[in-house]
Every structure is written in structure tokens, then in C-alpha cells.
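Usage

Read records sequentially. Each one opens with the input sequence:
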Amino acid sequence: MGETRRDPESPQYLEGWDFHSRSLGDSFRHAWDGLSYIYVTQRNMRIHVFVASLAFSTCIVLGLGRTEFFMVTLAVLGVLSAEVVNTLTESIVDLIQPEYNVIAKIIKDVAAAGVLLTAVFSVVIGVIAFCPALGNLSGVLREFATYRWRYLLVQALVFVAPSFWGMIRFTGAGRRSCQEEE
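and closes with the structure output:
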């Protein structure tokens, strides 16, 4: 039992791993590396981040209240978390079953379905949160024009995705995770 690379109790599997010496900072760095890896390697995550920045910009432009903003935030975080779990599932399946397998395909499809359901739910939340404010769009836009800081904040949020991409490129976190994978 202790001879295969896949066996977590195998001495070769555990060789070189020190599970107790990590600092809290190391844990956060590893989490950042994971997010960076997903952002760099998964097109859908980049799309989700861009749509999230648009959703938050819309919240600001429409002047949504705390409750609606909280609903949108939970929906966005739900979609991003579902994409993380989907990528994790696909990576584990690829590690365990590198060649094509019908069961592996089903597992990946089910994980992708979780993302789809979460995305549909977030669209429903968006409709619930945004529709009442859109009914008074001319008044909202007039009020928005009087508060210049909102305009600057919306511009900042719309450019979150490219900035995030630049930050990953600058820190090299995505490349570091990809190199460790090889």
C-alpha cells in the first residue's frame, strides 16, 4: 500500500512536505497563488471577474441600498467560489484519471453544472436587485451625475479585471503555480 505516488500515506508522497512549519503569511500566499492560477488558466474565471466588476459598477451607478448590494455581493462570491470548486474538481480528476474516462467526464460535467446553476441564480439576484432601481433610471442618472466620486469609482471597478491581470503578471503568481504543476 505504501509504494504508489497516489497513496497519501506513502513515504515518497510525503517526502519533503513540512505541514507544521507554515506561517499564516505562507497560507495566504498559497491561497493567492491558487486564485492567480485559476485566473490565468481559466477563461471562465476571467469572464466572471469582469462581469462581477460590471455588477458592482451597476450597483454604484444605480445607488442600490445595503441589502441589494449584499445580495449582489453574495451572488458574485457564489459564482467565483463555484468556479474555484469546478477547477479543483477538474484538476483532481485529471490527476487521478489522465486518459479519457466516461465517469471522469460525468464528474467534470456535474462540477460545471454547479457553476451554471450558481450563475443562473446570480442573474436572478441581479434582476431582483436592479429592476426596482431601473424603473427610475432618469432620476438615478441625474443623481449619479451630481456625485462625481461615483463616476470615478465606476471607472475603477470596470478596470478591475485588467488590473487584476496586471497584478498577477507583475507578481508572477500565476506562472509560479503553473511551473510547480509541471
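Summary fields computed downstream for this record:
- Residues 42 and 87 are 8 Å apart (CA to CA).
- The chain has nine helices and no strands.
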